[in-house]
TrEMBL record, chain A:
It comes from Streptomyces tanashiensis. The lineage of its organism: Bacteria, Bacillati, Actinomycetota, Actinomycetes, Kitasatosporales. Keywords: Membrane, Transmembrane, Transmembrane helix. This is ABC transporter permease. The keyword Transmembrane helix applies. Coiled coil: none annotated. Pfam families: ABC2_membrane_4. The chain crosses the membrane at residues 21-44, 64-85, 106-131, 151-170, 177-197, 233-254. It comes from the Bacteria.
Amino acid sequence: MAAASAVLQSEWTKIRTVSSTVWTLASALLVTVAMSAALCALFKSTFDDLSEVEQATFDPTFASFSGMILGQLAMVVFGVLVVGTEYSSGMIRTSLAAVPQRATFLFSKIAVAGGLALVVGLATSFLSFFLGQALLGEHRTDLGADNVLRAVVGGGLYMGLIAIFSMGVATMLRSSMLSLGILVPFFFLISQILSAVPKAKEVAKYFPDQAGSKIMQVVPDAMGSEKAPYGPWGGLGIMLLWVAVSLLGGYLVLKNRDA
Amino acid sequence: MIEAVGLTKRYGAKTAVYNLSFQVRPGVVTGFLGPNGSGKSTTMRMILGLDRPTAGQVTIGGHPFRQLPNAPRQVGALLDAKAVHGGRSARSHLLSLAQLAGIPAQRVDEVLGVVGLQDVAKRRSKGFSLGMGQRLGIAAALLGDPQVLLFDEPVNGLDPEGILWVRNLMKKLASEGRTVFVSSHLMSEMALTADHLIVIGRGQLLADMSVTDFISANSADFARVRTPGTEPGQREKLTSVLTEAGGQVLSEPDGALRVTGLPLPRISDLAHGADVRLWELSPHQASLEEAYMRMTQGAVDYRSTDDRLAHLQPPVQPGQPGYGMPPQPPVHEVPQQGWYAPPPPGQNPYGGAPQGSYAPAPGPYAPPAAPQPGLPQPSDTPKDAR
Amino acid sequence: MIELEGLTKRYGTKTAVDHLSFQVRPGVVTGFLGPNGAGKSTTMRMMLDLDNPTSGTVRIDGKHYRELAEPLKYIGALLDAKAMHGGRSAYNNLLCLAQSNRIPASRVGEVLDLVGLTPVARKKSKGFSLGMGQRLGIASALLGDPEILMFDEPVNGLDPEGIHWIRNLMKALAAEGRTIFVSSHLMSEMALTADHLIVIGQGKLLADTSMADFIQQNSRSYVRMRSPQQERLRDVLHANGFVVVEAGNGTLEVDGATTEKLGELAAENGLVLHELSAQRASLEEAFMQMTAGAVEYHAHGTDVHSGAAAPGPQWGTTSQGA
């Protein structure tokens, strides 16, 4: 079997030698941090205008992650492109001829790209948190407070898992365009819209992004959000399940279909 | 008729085409040859008015392309097989072209039939293979039933049947009195298709002559002579007789003799006189490829060539290709006249290198060599980098 | 050595490759021929384990491809010139391949040098011309210094120098005892490169034979003779039972004889010959003859064989021939 370390090294070279890695990850970080900061500043200046319920359940930690709704899309793009460009460029045939063991190939790629996404995700969540808190003024919290560290680390995990989930989906669909065409509207529109529709929102609660984002809340049901039948770690577990399913699906497609 | 006069194209500091003048006449297939980067595509693009010449001009039937009234009905071109909107069907692609030029829709179905795409006419061209794309491109070129046709690498991606078909199609078009101008890198294909050749190198005209003239001007014809393999003495005897008579004799790998400088009947008479029996006496003409290689040697705008040729090539005196040395019996090995002989084993980068140790040692067939400073860009420069 | 045994691939009801069994032996260049749609590409992809066979096996030096730990060191393949990531430089594209098979990075520079891409090694490969992409693909095939090499249409996009170079490269690699398997549509090119041929049509093996035998079996070969004593020559040939065809210009064409035999015959009879040469059909002719029944027409319409489909104002009617 091809040595996993060799394949990991190869995948690391692949990732660091394409410019899309830099621009997708950089936008994930910058967009999240900038948008979160802007919203935190907005919260501070308009705090008095918020409804009483919202004021009562105001979650300064969660507020400093509010930019992730946009920033996660860059993570989706990163995850999709890491896999999808193998197919769109035809590189997949060269890659598989070099590493015919499909599992070694796929999981090395996921490990490297997923690891990188996690690192960038963590950097993003910590940066967002500190900048957000600085801008929230008297409404701020700090890392030492209950559950705050869990939420901040959880924010990083969330970003990384979104990317890994996208990689699995792209491996199943074997196309960047198709994957982006499904994932971006899903995370940006469908999931958000459904979570506001009665009945549908019962299902939407179990979507990967809805479930996974619970880990970032310090105040349960923060800022008037819906009650969930699971806790923060339960939510992350549901998200992990989604990720596992997408990876398994991706692996089965890669293993059984002609390259 | 296509006529270029003093055609010149510069991209910044690089001169792609310089002072090119030639005519492409109707009624024959004219081949357009040149190494990569020699300016062939640029010239074709200028003929079609896609690029504007820096100086000089090129006309089709007396008019620059852009001033041709209803150009699509006078000139058909296949430049890039994939220059088609992939989402459209083959038929609607052609239909849109036909409508632009005011060609009746019925003609679309005709050309689809001609190129054999009628069965897939309704399919989106995105799923087409290179060969099918090529056929679609040829259909587009034929659409306006034009008198002047340009084809850039027409057999690309076609299978042997397709290649034969394109070859016959071009000959047929020429025989109807049309002007057919074809560029290709496939010398063997060109030799079978073209009647006339225009060869350029580094943007300048190297040759404008018939294929036959081109081959005889750029290579030496020779005779292959074999004596009975059972009697080695006869071979020696014939060699010395032929050498005395002023012929040049070289040895071929299978033991036959390669004789230049003597006509066949004379060889026959000399053999007869020396009482040598012949097992073979056959005339050989060099291939178009050999002739082309000889001609373009100096003009190849190519990083790999000089170095490689230095290894592969026999010491050739200019003007006396291959046979410049005074003949001396012990018979010389045939130099790379055929150019197909592999370089001696053992002199290559892999030869002695044990598995896993990658000794760098470019062999005789290594094409590479850094581009010489001062030379223009490497030939395969990205087309879009211009 | 590559061994195929009963290799079969079906897509739904369509059989692309049908019980294909053959061996590709080391030391010679083996050409792989067949019309479009004959299943050449599918076969080559199955050899590299990119496509899963419906049944049958391919063995590389006795092993399944997936059992090869570092396959690039056994077998190098050029399947598709553009099978590289365009956003990556030529060097980096090769580097990640090299790393995955633990090939030293220094080898990347060597193969780039070998194919003449050193000057553009740091350029993104998406700007490469077809010819440069082809060279990059060839470099990737040579990367692991493998004993087996597969090339699918290697001369595509190369200019005459490049064509000449790759031809000599393949022959030299074969002469070192490597296994070279090359597919091409260019018969004239194949005739110059390959020693052995494997021909398939509609997924089935049509021929597995040496180049010389293939041409001989699938076309007419004859000996052309010219002599100032033509009358006597013809009489001598007739007397010895040879079939002679007069071809004009004072040439005689003799079927079913070797030049050796005819040379001796002429010498015995004191005849002067001005030409005595074996005439062989081209590989293209032989190939056309052999595959005439096995060509798949699905996408090519009916006029493929009608030669030039009589272009002209009346094309529509004349193109339906054959």
